[in-house]
Design goal:
By secondary structure, the protein is α+β, with helices and mostly antiparallel strands. It folds into three domains: about 50 residues, 2-Layer Sandwich (Uridine Diphospho-n-acetylenolpyruvylglucosamine Reductase, domain 2); about 110 residues, Uridine Diphospho-n-acetylenolpyruvylglucosamine Reductase, domain 3 (2-Layer Sandwich); about 110 residues, Enolase-like, domain 1, CATH 3.30.390.50. Helix content is about 35%, strand content about 25%. The strands form four sheets. It has a five-stranded antiparallel β-sheet with strand order 4-5-10-6-7. It has a four-stranded antiparallel β-sheet with strand order 11-12-13-14, sandwiched between helices. Strand 8 and strand 9 form a beta hairpin. Bound molecules: flavin-adenine dinucleotide. The site of flavin-adenine dinucleotide (FAD) has 31 residues, from strand 2, helix 6, helix 7 and strand 10.
């Protein structure tokens, strides 16, 4: 680890000021589960570490009129255990419960998971399936970025260097909705996904048709990917085995996995097909 100065600001404005003033020489840190490893390996060599951990009002989950407000510093473990999240935003709780092991989940924050922009993650696909929006504070004020515009590439997000993610907003799923997060791993303690799928569906109770479908695939490209063709295949239709299989095949074609230590492109496409089918069946069952 190289030497750096350390500061723990007490307001968001102070954090933004420091990050902006020091530009690429400054590093924001929240739970530290991703950054400390990179600091140890000298893959990050900041002159200043700005510890966001002391910022007030950025921790916790709050249900308001239209949905859920999740403070950026909320530990992933708190999402998994929160009663409101579990009852009304089950997809999110399920994805949170599948991140790493309990020790990492206790330290890692929701904001860190989103801002890191790592392709092999669980919460970002679930948040994207739930149509979440990120609120980012900068020197010019706050701006809202829908998550489908937030992830730009591997480890690259719409957050600018001087900005701090303050919270995420998740709309309350409409009645008749069900969600499911399924994941395939190599079984290592790290538990990072080879591939995962988050699906949120809404079933029209009167017709049994799928009024809305949001399938998101994780670790199959540089960013979590909405499976547009698969979603369009299902929207407005009554789900059948054949239709679900067709949608899963389309999702597998749409995905853009790379060959790496976790598997070949062919292998990952096969798994995507299986996981999309599983996630859809599970989400539809929960919606019903
Ligand atoms: C052993 C291990 C296993 C893991 N397994 C999984 C897994 O199975 N599934 C999974 O999804 N993830 C997994 N992860 C990744 C883990 O979820 C991330 O490391 C974690 O979410 C990052 O959160 P953090 O608070 O620790 O972020 P930090 O390490 O503090 O920061 C990460 C990045 O986000 C930036 N950042 C953090 N918070 C903010 C903010 N509020 N505003 C602006 N920028 C910010 C930092 O500058 C940094 O670039 C694993 C990690 C480890 C170490």
């Amino acid at each position: 680890m190289t030497k750096f100065d350390y500061v723990r600001p007490s307001t968001v404005a102070e954090a933004v000021g420091l990050l902006e003033a020091h530009g690429d020489d400054a590093l924001a840190i929240a739970g530290g589960t991703a950054t400390v490893l990179l600091l140890q390996k000298r893959m990050l060599r900041p002159e200043l570490v700005v510890d966001l951990g002391g910022l007030p009002g950025l921790t916790g989950v709050e249900q308001n009129g239209g949905g859920l407000r999740i403070g950026a510093l909320t530990p992933i473990r708190a999402i998994e255990r929160d009663a409101t999240v579990r009852s009304s935003y089950g997809l999110l709780a399920e994805a949170a419960s599948q991140v790493a092991g309990v020790r990492v989940r206790n330290a890692a924050t929701v904001g860190g998971s989103v801002c890191f922009g790592e392709p092999q993650t669980d919460l970002p696909p679930a948040l994207l399936a739930m149509n979440a929006t990120a609120t980012i504070a900068g020197s010019q004020g706050s701006r809202d970025v829908p998550l489908d515009e937030f992830f730009l590439g591997p480890y690259e997000t719409a957050r600018e260097q001087g900005e701090v993610l303050t919270h995420l907003s998740v709309p309350t799923p409409v009645p008749g909705s069900g969600g499911c997060h399924v994941k395939f791993t190599l079984g290592s303690p790290e538990n990072k996904p080879v591939v995962n799928v988050s699906a949120l569906v809404t079933v029209d109770a009167s017709t049994g048709a799928l009024a809305d479908v949001r399938i998101v695939m994780g670790a199959v490209g540089g960013v979590p990917m909405l499976a547009h063709k698969a979603n369009d295949t299902l929207k407005g239709e009554r789900p059948s085995d054949a239709l679900i299989a067709q949608a899963a095949a389309r999702a597998s074609e749409e995905a853009d996995p790379i060959e790496d230590l976790r598997g070949s492109v062919w292998y990952k496409r096969r798994i995507i097909k299986v996981l999309v089918e599983r996630a859809l069946r599970c989400a539809i069952e929960r919606a019903n």
